[in-house]
TrEMBL record:
Gene: Adprs
Reaction(s) catalysed by this chain's protein: alpha-NAD(+) + H2O = ADP-D-ribose + nicotinamide + H(+)
Domain of life where this protein originates: Eukaryota
Family note: Belongs to the ADP-ribosylglycohydrolase family.
Residues the entry annotates as binding Mg(2+): 62-64, 295, 297-298
Enzyme Commission number: 3.2.1.143
A GO BP annotation: peptidyl-serine ADP-deribosylation
Cofactor: Mg(2+)
Organism: Caerostris darwini
Annotated protein name in UniProt: ADP-ribosylhydrolase ARH3
GO MF annotations in UniProt: metal ion binding; poly(ADP-ribose) glycohydrolase activity
Length: 346
């Protein structure tokens, strides 16, 4: 089993790590989706079999990966965030593979987009939930390519790109603000030096300050959740259980109840877990994210994208990569996305 690398990986390695981490979290988390509580014994055996070669099963990806790869392909082709092209790619991907676990509400958006011939790509999303828009985590789960492509952009520019990508399906502030936070977390991990000692309080504080500026609505669930995470570390309560974290931060399909949880899972993976002995922090991140139960594939996918962006692909065991569908395609797309990002002048 591959252990965490000690040297700081190069940017291409981090691109690959982020994209492959996204896929692994999705594929490995999907079998547990909807479980209110995941047994440590069952999950420990699951990971042990994967890491020791006892399992040869190839795990399929879900809508999380479908939409993420649509974003990647659009960025590679257009060298920018193009909302109309994104909408067309989302719709084409859905109708080519409708049984990847898409939720009913986003399917309604896709059908409306197709029927309208993409006349106004934001209108169907605006009509969701009696005009209030969706605050699910579907826009946050696909946002990591925006962070990779825009790693040299300012936070304001990245925020605008995240919102533009999100509003096709998620127009509620809690929906697109979740995508903004996830995007900023991936960018921070990507630009961090993993060969130096990691400071979780500093990592969270930086995100907290940015969300305080961006989350301008009357309520600020992301800013408040980041404060909660920081308090865990300031009070020395890092051994809080997965059950307690699920209650404290959430583990649901709503973005404000899953994006902060994914970020915490990344932080939790930095240190050994009492319930699962493993020297690899990337593996610990995915393990903890799945152990939370609830929306396991999406939370693990978002956590995996942050951890992969931080540690690079060398830290991801080949035993896990080989168990995921389309792993080679995702790796190649990561390389193409890296190349496209180098062509952009900011």
């Amino acid at each position: 089993m591959t252990s965490a690398v000690l040297s700081n990986p190069g940017l291409l390695s981090k691109f690959r790590g982020c994209m492959i981490g996204t896929l692994i979290g999705d594929c490995l988390g999907a079998p547990f989706e909807g479980d209110e509580l995941v047994s440590n014994r069952i999950l420990g055996n699951y990971f042990s079999n994967l890491l020791n070669g006892g399992s040869k099963q190839i795990f399929p990806y879900t809508d999380d990966t479908c939409m993420t790869l649509s974003v990647v392909n659009s960025l590679i082709e257009n060298k920018k965030v193009d909302a109309k092209d994104l909408a067309k790619k989302f719709v084409a991907e859905y109708f080519s593979q409708p049984k990847r676990g898409y939720g009913k509400n986003v399917v309604d958006v896709f059908q409306a987009l197709k029927q309208s011939n993409f006349d106004d790509v934001y209108l169907p999303g605006k009509m969701q939930f009696n005009g209030s828009g969706s605050y699910g985590n579907g826009s946050a789960m696909r946002i990591s390519p925006i962070a990779l492509f825009g790693h040299n952009k300012s936070d304001i520019e990245l925020k605008n790109d995240a919102v533009e990508c999100s509003r096709i399906t998620h127009t509620h502030p809690n929906g697109y603000n979740g995508a903004i936070l996830q995007c900023l977390a991936v960018k921070s991990a990507l630009n961090a030096d993993s060969s130096k000692e990691f400071d979780p309080v500093d990592f969270i504080s930086q995100l907290e300050n940015k969300m305080e500026a961006f989350e301008i609505e009357a309520t600020s669930p992301y800013f408040e959740s980041l404060k909660k995470i920081k308090d865990i570390y300031l009070k020395g309560q890092e051994d809080i259980t997965a059950v307690e974290i699920g209650k404290y931060l959430g583990h649901y399909v709503s973005a404000h109840k899953s994006v902060p949880t994914a970020i915490y899972s990344f932080l939790r993976g930095m240190k050994p877990l009492s319930e699962f002995e493993c020297p690899n922090p990337f593996v610990r991140t995915i393990y903890f994210a799945i152990s939370l139960g609830g929306d396991t594939d999406t939370i693990a996918s978002m956590a995996g994208s942050i951890a992969g962006a931080y540690f690079g692909v060398e830290a991801i065991p080949s035993e896990l990569q080989e168990r995921c569908e389309i792993i080679e395609e995702v790796s190649k797309l990561a390389d193409k996305l890296y190349g496209a990002s180098q062509d952009v002048v900011t």
